[in-house]
Amino acid sequence: MAAFYIVLEVIAFIAVIVVPLSGPKRVKKQAAATVSSLAVTEEGYLEQLAGNPAHHLPVH
Fold first, then answer.
1. Pair 47, 37: CB distance under 8 Å
2. Where are the membrane-spanning stretches (predicted)?
3. Local structure of 46: helix, strand or coil
4. pTM, two decimal places
């Protein structure tokens, strides 16, 4: 029974002390935000824009 507690303490030591010392993981850079070439028409359909996608309409 004493051997079980020693193994349990060693596993707890590794989990609490040694694993966090490995350091933080690298965060991948996110892609830059761009304007999509898709738009929703007045009828509610999703369609590909033929012209300039940066044409903004007022939103009410």
1. no
2. 6-23
3. strand
4. 0.36
